[in-house]
Amino acid sequence: MAFRRIGAAASTALVVALAPIGTGVAVAQDPVPPVSAGSQTVDEDPEFLELHIDKVTPNTVTTTSDPFVTVSGSVKNIGDRTVSDVSVRLQRAPAVASSDALRTSLTLDQSRFDTVGMFDTVAESLDEGQSKQFTLSLPLRSDTDPALDITEPGVYPMLVNVNGTPEYGGAARLDDARFLLPVFGVPGTPAIPPDISSPVAVTMLWPLADRPRLAAGVPGSVTDPVRLVDDELATSLADGGRLHELLASAEFATGEAVDRDHALRDSMCLAVDPDLLITVENMTRDYLVVDDPSDPTGPAHAGTGREAAADWLERARSLAASMCTTSVPFAQADLSAISAVGNTELTAAALEAPADIVDNILGVTSLRNFVWSDAGVLDDDTAQLLRRDQPTTTLLAANAIDTDAPRDSAHVIEASPAQSPLPGNGETTPAATGTSAPTGSLDALLFDPAVGAALAATGTTPQTPSYTPARARFDLTDDSQAARLQDALGAVSWSALEPAVARSAGTPRSLMVVPPQLWTAGEDDAETILSTVSSMIRTGLATPRPLPALLGRQPGSPELSSLDYPDQATEDGVPAHHRDAVADQIPRIETLDTALIDDPQATLTPERFTAPLREDLLRSMSLAHRRDEKHDSASEASDLRTEQVADTMNDLFGAVTVVSPGGVYTLASEQSPLLLVARNDLPVGITVQLQVAAPSGMTITDIGPTPLPPRGSRTLTVPTEANDSRKLVVTFSLTTADGQQLGEPTSVTVRSNAYGQALAILTACAGTLLLFLAGRRLWHRFRGQPDPADEGYERS
Questions:
Q1: Residue 730's pLDDT is what?
Q2: Up-side HSE of residue 603: CA atoms within 13 Å toward CB?
Q3: Is a pLDDT exceeding 70 seen at residue 386?
């Protein structure tokens, strides 16, 4: 229903220092009129009718449009009784005067929409479950008839109100629906064009991303086909699918036939998820889809998206080659979670490897030293993490910067070489974080949070970004997809239609169009938004501003400012228990990676073998679907992914072990070597260390690091000295060089032919007796006397 509740207030956390910006975006400056008590409590009343907007014509008013606005939709009886005298009318509120009001105006009480048309009857009565279509039309302006009274360009909040009389009740307003109407120019006589004296500089990110699809816990292989948890991506890449339409819309809008001067193309930058590219590239070969996502190595069937993947990837390469291209963090990973884990290799896989992946697969040179976190905000630790040897720019919502932070704040430090502020929304400013100055710097490129929120609300699965303030949060399911698209069009065009805002701030205007990375906009949404931006450029309301031009360093010294990290971002992000689970597995992967043998002759390298496991941990920290209606399933999928990685690591460590010889092992002598067999079931060779727990009476020499061949075994000759003839139990196990247990320990029962000290005494006594008898015989012979021992044996 359109009667919305405003979300609870969210506290802000001052955690890091950034250099401030001067922005043409008026964020939260105008007071928001309070929502009436009626709107706050109506949700508790019985619901009778549901109003749904299907289409608004024109979706953007220009001087050449028809001089009236037409809204078509439907009214459905969702109550438990008949409603009679169902009628609708169109109403308008004053033009949006601040950026903040682009969202808050959609929550105002209907009384604030004080320019009204006449009621139009939809149905004499609607029974339970029955629905009825309607079409409303109202002139933009008229001297004689009811009209919207729009006499100048701007963005206008609109409301469709439905009244009815429920059975056993009186006439009442039973539902409404709101949307924004951008007016570029007022048609009629005379036509009123927009002010194009100070066009807005527009930069647009065009994301190509998806939720993680590769099955977890499957190490790298040379010949085995990849496994996916489902085959939905095949549908998304095919004609009519989400990713197909996002790509097709950009292709069409920037094509030579439409964008002849390349103005729209110059304003755009493809933002590609490397995880999506890895998945699609693997789909161009034979791939499998598991029958049960909880059993990634279990039964699977062949995937169906090979042709669609190949076609989409080829078209993506062609489009990327013609325009700015950048990467987003791997699998849209939560950068706050990455910084909390604090692992260097994991951080590199999330932030540094994506650019190389995009370059290798798409065959381009993507934009470097640019980081776009899908959260749109940064905390202190993450900002510190992003500061590198070279100046780095991050993309943030304008309200993620606390420009009122004092210069002497504990979080403000000396900035590295400063950058002069760029004008308005989309401004770049240096950032300083932490308590000591690192070698690099972090700049903030800002976008209007109201514009970002409106874009995030479009599509089949709308979401509310973490940076959206509490006063602008409401249930997006109250609005139809058509209405949410109108809101996005209004938000995108507002700054171009309000030059007075920028002039009062004394700076030129700029606009960053930043949808969410996982954007569910369909064909109509994507094409309409691109068409609107293109129209702004063609009519002189906007000029293209390439993203790479914003990343260069320029002289200047703006003030420092700190980061404002909302509690909502923590709530929307990866929970602490999941970060801990990731942190537990990272050292195990590194240990295994170090123990594996890098054979130049082998196709499967240790890095290629373990990389999917590290990437799985990044996928488990994805922000995909964590802010929409699928957040529960996204969280469950993340937990399952880390569990599967842990299970796989257990299996990999268990695949290297000592084979028990069985029975009793008998040594031929007290210093005979002990022969053991070590087996490696991994497809990559590994270096192991034999660990021995031997009882007293037995000494076993350390044989040192021992390499084992891939999927093979090796006999270990263990020098052994046994000083006891008893049966002795010796425990053997294999570990990595740093002591990580491999496989299960094996106990061997050993028996030696040695007699120990008793054998030594007997031998000594026998030797003494032998010497005595030999000596006596020689003595008698020397004296010519027969030896008494020879009596009876004299020669005859």
A1: 84
A2: 4
A3: yes
Which of 183, 209, 236 represents a domain boundary (last residue)?
Answer: 183
What SS3 class is residue 63? coil
Residue 103: name the closest of 233, 4, 11 by CA: 4
pTM: 0.85
The CATH number of whichever domain residue 685 belongs to comes to 2.60.40.2310
667 and 556 in a common domain: no
Question: pLDDT of 617-631, one tens digit each?
Answer: 999 999 999 999 999
Q: What is the DSSP letter of 723?
A: -
Burial per residue of 462-473, b for 16 or more beta-carbon CB atoms within 10 angstroms, e otherwise: bbbbbbbbebbb
Query: CB neighbours (10 Å) of residue 270?
Result: 25
**C-alpha angle with apex 528: 525 to 532, nearest 5 degrees?**
140
> 63 with 504: CB under 8 angstroms?
no
Return d(Cα 509, Cα 512) in angstroms, integer. Answer: 11
CA triplet 113, 118, 121: central angle to 5 degrees? Answer: 115
pLDDT of residue 669: 60
Note the pLDDT tens digit of each residue in 674-698.
888 999 999 999 999 999 888 877 7
pLDDT for residue 502 is more than 60: no
What type of residue sits at position 173? R
Are residues 772 and 691 both part of a single domain? no
Q: Examine the domain organization and report whether 244 and 153 are in the same domain.
A: no
CATH of the domain at 469: 3.20.110
Q: Is 297 exposed, middle or buried (0-12, 13-18, 19+ CB in 10 A)?
A: middle
Report helix angle 606-620 to 344-351, nearest 10: 80
Rounded Cα–Cα distance for residues 652 and 666 (Å)? 33
State the pLDDT confidence band at 552, using cuts at 50, 70 and 90.
Answer: low
In the predicted structure, residue 545 carries a pLDDT above the cut 60: yes
Return the pLDDT at 388.
Answer: 73
